[in-house]
Design a protein that fits this description.
208 residues, mainly alpha, 8 helices, 76% helix, globular
């Protein structure tokens, strides 16, 4: 895998990506309509560990560190500066997203919750797409998906769907919140992330 030159633009892009992912995961969690397939694992670990809802960022960091160890042995080529830029500030960005939700949510009505869930999913998809496009190393979950893609020799979007379904089962068994957002993201994440990645490369990174 050819790594891009480490530039200020790429580093800033990577940080923007993790910010979007963290806020997206927090919005989905706070809206209460179910976590995305990654968020449900974070929420499950938080639940089974006896952590409070406010400790979701801490739980997510613990999961990412564990996945980093696994990825180091089975997919080291996908670990680079961008990987560390992801999980070091990730927990803080999740907490920041929960802070934003508490100040922006105008009500606890269904319309507001649906709106934040849609925003959360789109932010999550775009954040992951930016990480893939910048190509400085990916987050631990995406790294595992890319390893599976290489092994199975299938398109990313199909591997992503299968992986997300597995994460939903694991997260639910651990006590994570399952809901309509979980199902929607499992079906749409792969294709939308692949589409967003193309847009980021074309219009932000100026690739042909």
């Amino acid at each position: 895998m050819d790594k891009r030159k480490i530039t200020a633009k790429n580093i800033i892009s990577a940080l923007v990506g993790v910010l979007l992912v963290g806020v997206g995961v927090a919005f989905n969690n706070c809206a209460g309509l179910g976590n995305d397939p990654v968020g449900i694992v974070y929420d499950g670990i938080r639940s089974i560990s006896g952590m409070t809802a406010e400790q979701l960022g801490t739980a997510s960091n613990l999961v990412n560190i564990g996945l980093m160890v696994v990825l180091f042995f089975v997919g080291r080529r996908y670990i680079s500066l961008g990987t560390f830029l992801y999980f070091i500030p990730y927990g803080f960005f999740v907490d920041f997203g929960k802070f934003l939700y508490s100040h922006l949510a105008f009500s606890e009505g269904m319309a507001s919750r649906i709106g934040f869930s849609v925003a959360g999913c789109l932010l999550l998809y775009l954040g992951v797409a930016i990480y893939i496009a910048v190509d400085m190393g990916v987050d631990p979950f995406t790294g595992v998906v890319l390893v599976l893609r290489d092994v199975l020799k299938k398109e990313y979007r199909y591997v992503k769907i299968g992986f997300d379904i597995t994460m939903i089962v694991v997260g639910t068994l651990l006590g994570g919140r399952l809901g309509v957002v979980t199902i929607v993201t499992a079906v749409t994440a792969g294709p939308v992330i692949q589409y967003f990645t193309g847009l980021v490369k074309k219009y932000w990174l100026k690739e042909n």
